[in-house]
Design brief:
Layout lengths: L1 H13 L5 H15 L4 E8 L2 E8 L9 E3 L3 H9 L3 E3 L17 E9 L2 E10 L7 H45 L4 H15 L4 E8 L2 E9 L10 E2 L5 H8 L3 E3 L16 E9 L2 E10 L10 H28 L10 H18 L3 E8 L2 H8 L1 H18 L5 E6 L2 E7 L3 H17 L11 E8 L6 H17 L5 E3 L12
Parallel strand pairs: 16-17
Antiparallel strand pairs: 1-2, 1-6, 2-3, 4-5, 5-6, 7-8, 7-12, 8-9, 10-11, 11-12, 13-15, 13-16, 14-15
Helix pairs in contact: 1-2, 1-4, 2-4, 4-5, 4-7, 5-7, 9-10, 10-11
Length: 494
Amino acid sequence: MQKISILYDASQAVLSTFDLDEVLQQILTIARDYFHLQNVAILLRDKNELYVRCQVGWDEGHDKIRLPIGTGITGAAAQQKRPVYAADVTKDARYIQSSRNTRSELAVPLMVRDDVVGVLDCQSENLNHFDSETIDLLALFSTQASMALQNARLYSLERQRASQLEAINAIAQQMTAVLDLKELLSQVCMRIQHAFQLCHVSVLLKDEEELVLRASHGKLTGRAPEGGRLPDDAGLWQRALAAGKTLIENDTRAASDVALYVETASSMCIPLVSFGQTLGVLVLDTSRAGAFNPTDTQPLESVADICATAIQNAHYVERVKQLAYLDGLTGIFNRRFFELRIVEEIERAERFGTGMAVVMVDIDQFKRLNDEFGHLLGDEVLRQVSSIFHQQLRKIDVLCRFGGEEFAILLCQTNAVHALGVAEKLRKSVEAWQFPGVPRRVTISAGTANYSEHGTTRDELVKAADAGLYAAKQAGRNRVFLAPRRGLAQGSGK
């Protein structure tokens, strides 16, 4: 009767808290002290496996094992849903060593209704340590421990849901306040990673038919650089995009998919969809296998929907901004954009020593062409010249309509020799082009100036390139001239 009374007090202690870690520690302490055990462990169930959640007395390293249901004495208890006892572990083929001193082992399933949620594993240094009364008492105690575990889990789940709702609300408020796409993507990754305690969060956005890693935040080692394009035929993200639904892979090391990060063990990929348009994929990674449960899907999909809408809004703002920097006739950048970018490129060239050049280009005798063939044909010539330039230049170069028939080009990460070569290639391309409706050749003249030989400021470089253009015109047009050195520049003219 005394043992029952003690056990009752112990059970009340276990049921007195809703904190999962405290409940587990109480169970261990009671099992160890009340039943005089050297080694006690609680293994929790994860699908078809048991893993050690907490223990005392086990040899170092053994607490990392994962046991399939049915394996070992603990696995047998989980499979059979009843206590399994080995009075002498050396004579039981099911025994898996966790401590060198163990002589007898009792595994008691922790059950909620008819479901096994874990196993209470009790080990002793004595042979045949557990008599039938002790086994019955431990089985009775395990029912109380199971209830305490379930209560703690439900409480933890409710707290997690409340926390997730708060996080979703906070993310929604923060996302509506950010309209710059780059900043938005950075905020998305950082806030989701923090709110949902993930190892890494990444945003992949569609660029034509490819996915590009546009932003990421976390502590894992990346396999692709930010801005890098990802392969079409590999990766859970590609399958999620094709299926149009959230996909989870809880053991990426056993899967054929390529993970974004070296340490990834579990991954969740959620398509980013706004108003029926698929923008990309939100990729969530952890270094722990089995990290994602189906219950995680709904709150994270809610976050993904919020992010998709914010990204779409940022896209709209970016397009509006871009329209303000585009020339309405030719579709290339205008002078306003040129003035912004030349300052950035000069700063970059100064900081990194990469060099840059300015090329000023003018269509020869364009006024005469307009007078002879009309402004509509003149406009078409401007559009086609813009198209030729666009095809010949690199993506990192900046092509702008400076005004009228004049163009300004920023060549990034280049030198004087390369700048002259590019300008000459443009000149030859225009000269060789057959412009519909124009019975004579259309040619251009160009002047080039490079940082820092011809200047270190916006005004110095533009003035120098313009002087080179003037010299080309004076020499007979359809030419490319390097700007004279500083101090030798002439006034510009057409």
